[in-house]
Design a protein that fits this description.
By secondary structure, the protein is α/β, with parallel strands linked by helices. It has 13 helices and 10 strands. It is globular.
């Protein structure tokens, strides 16, 4: 049995054709596919090219796909699910099941293998989502980079730039963030950063990668970066708590999956998040995802056919993902 899985975000899009043993028969990684960060024509063209590339890699198995699961940022906000389904339906057999969800659900499944829990996702954007014991989804945050997305790659990158410019002016204490950010944009003066940032069509995707320098500086003891990271952890924890109180939950422990590019050093975040836990009626069990996010989409594709995957799938899928 073969499934098609897609994980699309503000930076990149991954797609695979996979079986229940974790073997991957086609794999594509391409550009972003968040319709809120690109025009409609480019968005649709990206999906068409993605499907065509998958088909070319293994046309025979492509025609046997029986379930498709798409986790894509921005699609549900723009109510663009019918557009995505229409495009996919042009390529797969008519009997194939198709589900389109927020990419945060894919991230949750990558840690829980389709079981209930909470996911805190922080990539280019950020969102907290809970899937409770009644199979109801609850969302907190992720309402757009202009006024939300706290803790996201964009948010951390923006805070880093804010610190660099204020330090340059003398409005803030010195920070080690300046040097790596200047090197990142290949300029030798803070004032030249303006052209690098404001001339980009989508500054969010230009700023989000700067988050890694905040993480590195915080690990090296930079006070400004440490403060930024501390505030991000507090924002994450607040969103996780709010999400939990919306959920129907009876167990003593609730799994919380940390997923996305911001959580590259997940142990750093787990340590700081655990420090914030106090007097809660439930134990938050923080962990990193067991699978790549695209693996969570594979889990979703099998889940809608009532097939539960196990630890053997995790090991096999991760092995194939690395070598292909």
């Amino acid at each position: 049995m073969y499934v098609l899985a897609i994980d699309g975000g503000g930076t990149k899009t991954s797609a695979v054709i996979c079986d229940e043993m974790g073997q991957i028969y086609a794999k594509v990684i391409t550009t972003r596919s968040n319709p809120t960060a690109m025009n409609a024509q480019f968005f649709e063209m990206t999906l068409h090219e993605l499907m065509q590339q998958l088909r070319l890699q293994n046309e025979q198995i492509f025609q046997e796909v029986s379930s498709c699961f798409v986790g894509m940022a921005g699609v549900m906000e723009l109510q663009a699910e019918p557009i995505v389904e229409k495009i996919i339906r042009q390529y797969v057999q008519q009997t194939a099941l198709i589900t389109i969800e927020n990419d945060a659900l894919v991230a949750l499944y990558s840690g829980t293998l389709g079981q209930p829990g909470i996911v805190q996702i922080a990539g280019t954007g950020a969102i907290t989502m809970g899937y409770d014991e009644k199979a109801i989804l609850h969302r907190v945050g992720g309402w757009g980079y202009l006024f939300d997305d706290k803790g996201s790659g964009y948010y951390l990158g923006m805070k880093a730039l804010e610190a660099v410019f204020q330090c340059y002016d003398g409005r803030m204490q010195d920070t080690s963030l300046t040097a790596p950010i200047l090197k990142h944009f290949m300029v030798d003066d803070v004032e030249k950063l303006i052209a690098c940032i404001y001339n980009d069509e989508h500054p969010r995707t230009n700023i989000a990668p700067l988050s890694k320098y905040v993480m590195q500086a915080a690990e090296n003891g930079d006070e400004v970066a440490t403060r930024i990271m501390k505030e991000a952890c507090e924002d994450f924890y607040k969103a996780i708590k709010v999400c939990f109180y919306k959920m129907a939950w009876s167990k003593q422990t609730i799994p919380v999956v940390l997923a996305g590019g911001v959580f590259t050093n997940v142990d750093y975040f787990i340590k700081h998040l655990q420090k914030l836990v106090s007097n809660e009626s439930v134990t938050f069990e923080f962990s990193k995802a067991a699978l790549e996010p695209i693996g969570g989409a594979v889990v979703g594709a099998f889940k809608q056919m009532d097939i539960q995957l196990d630890e053997d799938f995790i090991q096999s899928f991760n092995r194939y993902w690395k070598v292909l």
